[in-house]
């Protein structure tokens, strides 16, 4: 794209008067165009500005508001928090003064109350275990698909993505019928006498692991497949030629070269899983504490907006590093594609 | 065609002439099928120690499949492969004393030049100090010592080619396989590298087998060439043999340019043969006999550079190996020119002539009437 | 690996079974007469009948479809512009932040996105009186925001793999940048835009958490209805609903695949004929 984007249109407008248009109108239009151009909001600038402003307003600003409210007091009002910024009239001095009250007690509560710390740690553990399960199940699948005949790869990947198009909620729900007491699994294991029919896996951490692995598996397989498919099989032949047994070639060539896929896939699973709400809510037990659930309850049940905000900010702090790593990997992937 | 064959050390023997010589690589009745498709069809071949052997053929001729069977990436459907007397047919690639230089080079993108070259040695559990020395020595040999820390994508095509070569040679294999080693290089670099490869091979004393579709490359570098077509070996011989005495129409046409005249044998004596060709517009006299009865339809191949052009009729001959035509096209190549001559019989003939004089003084130009003639040894009789 | 034997093949088949068996069981039990979903007592389609009479559910489904269609369309426009900016404009001021705002929503936990948007809407309402209460508008804005990131990533990667010289050729032949975009770039990336729209539509239709935060009274989406029912345990009506959704999606994808495959075959045939003709 040329640097000046849609410039020629502006030139044409200022150039001559289209027939039937009053002179002052086209002059005004030219002036507007010139102004927009001056501030870089014409053509190219406009293409960037529209999504930029949208994301700025609806993605970035909200975080600042969350941050601000996390320092407020909970009050019984509408909305249920105190404003930390207040303009007060000092009647003695006949002056207005700006008063900012930072309430740190919410954060202190997060640090001192075992519930929150436990929930954060438990979320990290649950997400990490589920990510590992996704990797262990997803890697061989992605590898097998990348090594299938080229004509088969499309359909096989389609089968991986297909469940993703059906409702997430319903796929989680499907496991309730399988894992509950007298459910499919209990009946099957009961039939061979391993458990009695009241045995259930539902409402446990294991059920949450299954649920997260099940729901996020496609996110693991997609980037893995992308890197494994790009891997030139000749490299493995070269490794074999230089003396590598197949498993050595896997460790020394395939694994390191698929590392970007492993990192991207793991983060795509790990980051949202830490804040997961639906799966622990539906499949987890009452003592399956995850931070997404705590946030939800603070907000909807306790109506404590400042605490919910503080929980969100703290969660974000946990995720800042993984999110930045993810962005770095993503950007490098993109650059790599551009270089080719 | 520029037949710039590297003139080899004259002291070198030609082991294939020696009936007592033991072949280093023996391919015995090897066939490879992929489903219904026969890629390599009953090929037998003996290659001797220190040879620079070329497998030459077009795409789909089976040359690469044959090479991959030597490397161990494909298993022959039938037949056996021996290297240095050991049956290698069932040995996996990582246990063969053979290394390969891949067409795409197959350099590991996540390793530096040094790590790429060291890879094979590490696999052999060689002590680190020794690896360092060997890698440094090898990189010096291919003039890449300054690039040791770079990644493959930071190198030029020619440099990558040399890394691939170094990586394959550093293990000191008994046999080096090269799959289109110069295919990805530009013309000038290719010519330079051809000589480098030959020098390297002579210095290291390793047997090279190279697959190529480029006849010039094969002629330049190799001690012997096996020409392949549709899974068969059509002819095996030294570059000179293959070029000067093609055994079939396919070989004659595949290697270099050639004019083909159809005709039939009218005289067959032990010391010569005479072939009457309406196409050539004259009788073709060849100074050796052929085991073919009078009246047999044959083709006679005459290379473009063996035909002489003149404005005046050739002095000797008596009408044999001499005909006339009109210059239709001239392609000036600098050192030589290619003339396309239309004979009075209608047949088009290609002639290459060195530009002994300057371009402006050239005696021949478009639409000139010319005489064509060639010596009795020039023609090669090929059965149809 | 050409054939699917060996441990790798087993892993693949196990993975597919893991992905599909739960869905098939769900569909199977939707035809169970018994209210205790997993205890089979006979074939019946009565739950489908009840589904059709559940007006609360149907209203929610209608609302969800509406929100999904609108937000997907907005997301496609904004996401395409964003993808274009990222793929074609090289370095510009604020690119880092821009790239960050595009990729972050892909992984951002939904509870955070939902909470932050709600707080924004509340603050905006207090400040400028808009949006007036929460409902379809706020849900649509929220869905547009996170779906446009997905569209941007899809469009960007399509544009990166597209040859810039096509656009340069068009400009060389005298097309102005805007014309180049509409005549050359847009048709080439149109498959990416279509799949981006479908993805945005699905994501919106599927979202529970964000919608729960930013919806108001009277704007209950389908996932919210399903969630409140599912929280109480299994329900045969939900099984029936799930079956309908799965069948609709499967049919849609099947048709899309067929159309694409036919186009591909046609292209191959044309190419072959061109080769033979040449």
TrEMBL record, chain B:
<dbReference type="InterPro" id="IPR050093">
    <property type="entry name" value="ABC_SmlMolc_Importer"/>
</dbReference>
<keyword id="KW-1278">Translocase</keyword>
<keyword id="KW-0067">ATP-binding</keyword>
<dbReference type="InterPro" id="IPR003593">
    <property type="entry name" value="AAA+_ATPase"/>
</dbReference>
<comment type="subunit">
    <text>The complex is composed of two ATP-binding proteins (PotA), two transmembrane proteins (PotB and PotC) and a solute-binding protein (PotD).</text>
</comment>
<keyword id="KW-1003">Cell membrane</keyword>
<protein>
    <recommendedName>
        <fullName>Spermidine/putrescine import ATP-binding protein PotA</fullName>
        <ecNumber>7.6.2.11</ecNumber>
    </recommendedName>
</protein>
<dbReference type="InterPro" id="IPR003439">
    <property type="entry name" value="ABC_transporter-like_ATP-bd"/>
</dbReference>
<comment type="function">
    <text>Part of the ABC transporter complex PotABCD involved in spermidine/putrescine import. Responsible for energy coupling to the transport system.</text>
</comment>
<dbReference type="InterPro" id="IPR008995">
    <property type="entry name" value="Mo/tungstate-bd_C_term_dom"/>
</dbReference>
<comment type="similarity">
    <text>Belongs to the ABC transporter superfamily. Spermidine/putrescine importer (TC 3.A.1.11.1) family.</text>
</comment>
<keyword id="KW-0472">Membrane</keyword>
<keyword id="KW-0997">Cell inner membrane</keyword>
<dbReference type="InterPro" id="IPR013611">
    <property type="entry name" value="Transp-assoc_OB_typ2"/>
</dbReference>
<dbReference type="InterPro" id="IPR017871">
    <property type="entry name" value="ABC_transporter-like_CS"/>
</dbReference>
<keyword id="KW-0813">Transport</keyword>
<dbReference type="Pfam" id="PF00005">
    <property type="entry name" value="ABC_tran"/>
</dbReference>
<keyword id="KW-0547">Nucleotide-binding</keyword>
<dbReference type="InterPro" id="IPR027417">
    <property type="entry name" value="P-loop_NTPase"/>
</dbReference>
<dbReference type="Pfam" id="PF08402">
    <property type="entry name" value="TOBE_2"/>
</dbReference>
<feature type="domain" description="ABC transporter">
    <location>
        <begin position="25"/>
        <end position="255"/>
    </location>
</feature>
<dbReference type="InterPro" id="IPR005893">
    <property type="entry name" value="PotA-like"/>
</dbReference>
Automatic annotation (TrEMBL), chain C:
<feature type="transmembrane region" description="Helical">
    <location>
        <begin position="238"/>
        <end position="261"/>
    </location>
</feature>
<comment type="similarity">
    <text>Belongs to the binding-protein-dependent transport system permease family. CysTW subfamily.</text>
</comment>
<dbReference type="Pfam" id="PF00528">
    <property type="entry name" value="BPD_transp_1"/>
</dbReference>
<feature type="transmembrane region" description="Helical">
    <location>
        <begin position="136"/>
        <end position="159"/>
    </location>
</feature>
<feature type="transmembrane region" description="Helical">
    <location>
        <begin position="12"/>
        <end position="31"/>
    </location>
</feature>
<feature type="domain" description="ABC transmembrane type-1">
    <location>
        <begin position="61"/>
        <end position="259"/>
    </location>
</feature>
<keyword id="KW-0813">Transport</keyword>
<keyword id="KW-0812">Transmembrane</keyword>
<dbReference type="InterPro" id="IPR000515">
    <property type="entry name" value="MetI-like"/>
</dbReference>
<keyword id="KW-0472">Membrane</keyword>
<feature type="transmembrane region" description="Helical">
    <location>
        <begin position="67"/>
        <end position="86"/>
    </location>
</feature>
<feature type="transmembrane region" description="Helical">
    <location>
        <begin position="98"/>
        <end position="124"/>
    </location>
</feature>
<feature type="transmembrane region" description="Helical">
    <location>
        <begin position="180"/>
        <end position="200"/>
    </location>
</feature>
<dbReference type="InterPro" id="IPR035906">
    <property type="entry name" value="MetI-like_sf"/>
</dbReference>
<protein>
    <submittedName>
        <fullName>ABC transporter permease subunit</fullName>
    </submittedName>
</protein>
<dbReference type="InterPro" id="IPR051789">
    <property type="entry name" value="Bact_Polyamine_Transport"/>
</dbReference>
<keyword id="KW-1133">Transmembrane helix</keyword>
<keyword id="KW-1003">Cell membrane</keyword>
């Amino acid at each position: 794209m040329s640097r000046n984007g849609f410039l020629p249109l502006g030139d044409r407008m200022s150039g001559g008067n289209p027939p039937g248009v009053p002179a002052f109108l086209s002059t005004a239009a030219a002036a507007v165009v010139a102004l927009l151009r001056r501030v870089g909001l014409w053509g190219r600038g406009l293409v960037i500005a529209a999504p930029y402003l949208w994301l700025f307003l609806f993605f970035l600003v909200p975080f600042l508001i969350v941050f601000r409210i996390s320092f407020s007091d909970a009050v019984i009002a509408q909305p249920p928090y105190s404003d930390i910024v207040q303009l007060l009239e000092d009647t003695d001095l006949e002056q207005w003064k700006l008063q900012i009250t930072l309430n740190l007690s919410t954060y202190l509560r997060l640090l001192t109350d075992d519930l929150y710390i436990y929930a954060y740690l438990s979320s990290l553990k649950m997400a990490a275990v589920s990510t590992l399960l996704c990797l262990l199940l997803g890697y061989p699948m992605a590898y097998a698909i990348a090594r299938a005949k080229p004509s088969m790869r499309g359909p096989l990947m389609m089968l991986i993505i297909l469940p993703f198009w059906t409702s997430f909620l319903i796929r989680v729900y499907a496991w309730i019928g399988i894992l509950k007491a007298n459910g499919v699994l209990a009946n099957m294991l009961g039939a061979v006498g391993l458990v009695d029919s009241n045995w259930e896996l539902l409402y446990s951490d294991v059920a949450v692991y299954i649920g997260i692995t099940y729901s996020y598996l496609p996110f693991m397989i997609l980037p893995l497949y992308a890197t494994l498919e790009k891997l030139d099989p000749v490299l493995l032949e070269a490794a074999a030629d230089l003396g590598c047994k197949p498993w050595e070639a896997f460790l020394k060539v395939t694994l390191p070269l698929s590392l970007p896929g492993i990192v991207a896939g793991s983060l795509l699973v790990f980051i949202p899983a830490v804040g997961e709400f639906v799966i622990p809510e539906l499949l987890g037990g009452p003592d399956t504490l995850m931070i997404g659930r705590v946030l939800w309850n603070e907000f909807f049940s306790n109506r404590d907006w400042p605490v919910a905000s503080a929980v969100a900010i703290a969660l974000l702090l946990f995720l800042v590093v993984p999110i930045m790593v993810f962005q770095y990997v993503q950007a490098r992937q993109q650059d790599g594609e551009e270089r080719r | 065609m520029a037949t710039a064959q590297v003139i080899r050390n004259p002291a070198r023997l030609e082991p294939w002439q020696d009936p007592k010589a033991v072949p280093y690589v023996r391919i015995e009745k090897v066939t490879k099928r992929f489903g219904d498709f026969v890629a390599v069809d009953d090929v037998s071949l003996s290659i001797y120690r220190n040879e620079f052997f070329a497998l030459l053929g077009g795409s789909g001729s089976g040359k690469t499949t044959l090479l991959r069977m030597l490397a161990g990436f494909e298993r022959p459907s039938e037949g056996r492969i021996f290297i240095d007397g050991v049956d290698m047919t069932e040995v996996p690639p990582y246990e063969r004393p053979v290394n390969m230089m891949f067409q795409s080079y197959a350099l590991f993108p996540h390793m530096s030049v040094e790590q790429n070259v060291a890879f094979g040695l590490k696999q052999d559990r060689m002590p680190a100090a020794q690896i360092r020395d060997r890698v440094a020595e090898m990189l010096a040999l291919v003039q890449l010592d300054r690039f040791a820390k770079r990644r493959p994508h930071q190198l030029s095509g020619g440099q990558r080619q040399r890394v691939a070569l170094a990586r394959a040679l550093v293990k000191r294999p008994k046999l080096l396989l090269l799959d289109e080693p110069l295919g990805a290089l530009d013309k000038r670099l290719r010519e330079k590298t051809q000589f480098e490869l030959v020098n390297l091979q002579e210095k290291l004393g390793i047997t090279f087998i190279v697959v190529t579709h480029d006849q010039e490359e094969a002629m330049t570098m190799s001690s012997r060439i096996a020409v392949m077509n549709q899974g068969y070996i059509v002819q095996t011989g030294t570059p000179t043999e293959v070029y000067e005495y093609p055994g079939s129409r396919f070989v004659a046409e595949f290697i270099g340019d050639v004019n083909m005249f159809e005709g039939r044998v009218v005289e067959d004596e032990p010391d010569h043969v005479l072939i009457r060709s309406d196409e050539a517009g004259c009788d073709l006299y060849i100074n050796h006999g052929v085991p073919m009865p009078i009246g047999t339809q044959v083709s006679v191949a005459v290379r473009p550079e063996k035909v002489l052009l003149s404005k005046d009729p050739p002095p000797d001959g008596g009408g044999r190996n001499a005909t006339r035509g009109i210059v239709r096209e001239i392609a000036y190549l600098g050192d030589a020119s290619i003339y396309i001559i239309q004979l009075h019989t209608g047949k088009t003939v290609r002639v290459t002539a060195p530009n002994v004089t300057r371009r402006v003084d050239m005696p021949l130009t478009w639409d000139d009437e010319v005489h064509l003639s060639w010596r009795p040894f020039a023609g090669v009789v090929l059965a149809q | 690996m050409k054939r699917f034997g060996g441990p790798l093949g087993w892993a693949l088949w196990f993975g597919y079974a893991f992905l599909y068996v739960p869905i098939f069981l769900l569909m199977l039990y939707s035809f169970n007469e018994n209210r205790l979903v997993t205890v089979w007592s006979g074939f019946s389609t009565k739950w489908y009948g009840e589904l059709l009479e559940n007006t609360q559910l149907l209203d929610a489904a209608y609302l969800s479809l509406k929100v999904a269609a609108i937000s997907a369309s907005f997301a496609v426009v904004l996401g395409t512009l964003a993808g274009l900016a990222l793929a074609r404009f090289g370095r510009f001021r604020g690119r880092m932040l821009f790239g960050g705002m595009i990729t972050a929503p892909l992984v951002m936990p939904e509870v955070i996105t939902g909470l932050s948007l709600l707080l924004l809407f509340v603050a905006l309402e207090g400040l400028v009186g808009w949006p007036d209460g929460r409902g379809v508008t706020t849900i649509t804005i929220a869905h547009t925001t996170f779906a446009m990131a997905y569209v941007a990533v899809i469009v960007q990667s399509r544009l990166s793999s597209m040859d810039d010289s096509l656009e340069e050729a068009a400009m060389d032949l005298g097309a102005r940048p805007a014309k180049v975009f509409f005549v050359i770039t847009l048709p080439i990336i149109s498959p990416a835009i279509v799949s981006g729209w479908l993805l945005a539509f699905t994501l919106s239709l599927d979202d529970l958490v964000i919608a729960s935060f930013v919806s108001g009274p009277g704007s209950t989406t389908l996932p919210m209805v399903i969630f409140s029912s599912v929280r109480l345990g299994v329900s045969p009506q939900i099984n029936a609903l799930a079956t309908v959704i799965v069948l609709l999606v499967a049919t849609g994808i099947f048709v899309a695949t067929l159309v694409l495959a036919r186009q591909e075959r046609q292209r191959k045939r044309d190419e072959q004929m061109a080769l033979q003709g040449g």
